[in-house]
Amino acid sequence: xxxxxxxxxxxxxxxxxxxxxxxxxxxxxxxxxxxxxxxxxxxxxxxxxxxxxxxxxxxxxxxxxxxxxxxxxxxxxxxxxxxxxxxxxxxxxxxxxxxxxxxxxxxxxxxxxxxxxxxxxxxxxxxxxxxxxxx
Length: 135
What we know:
Blueprint: H1 5-19, H2 22-56, E1 67-69, E2 72-74, H3 76-109, H4 121-134
Antiparallel strand pairs: 1-2
Family: Belongs to the MscL family.
Organism: Candidatus Kaiserbacteria bacterium CG10_big_fil_rev_8_21_14_0_10_44_10
Keywords: Cell membrane, Ion channel, Ion transport, Membrane, Transmembrane, Transmembrane helix, Transport
């Protein structure tokens, strides 16, 4: 016998209904894709953009920019790099959303092909009777 009674069953059923809704599944997919996208953008920033920015800034490696306060080492270069990473991710997501919205608008603007509906047997029979009477 279930010591929790029917409340636990109801809670489980309610959770299933919630978890299996389309929006939750879409959100889960978005989180996974967003994580992968974040890794790609971080790689772009760390391996391409930041070295070029360092060369443009006179050979500065942003990750190594630090200053000391007593015995503490403040790594503000890593913070600058994180801000640049965030900006690149934000711009990338903004562009991706703009592209998706424009594709959705194009899809909504397409006229639906008119479907040819086959008449029912009754309609066919009535047409035959009409045609026979018109002769």
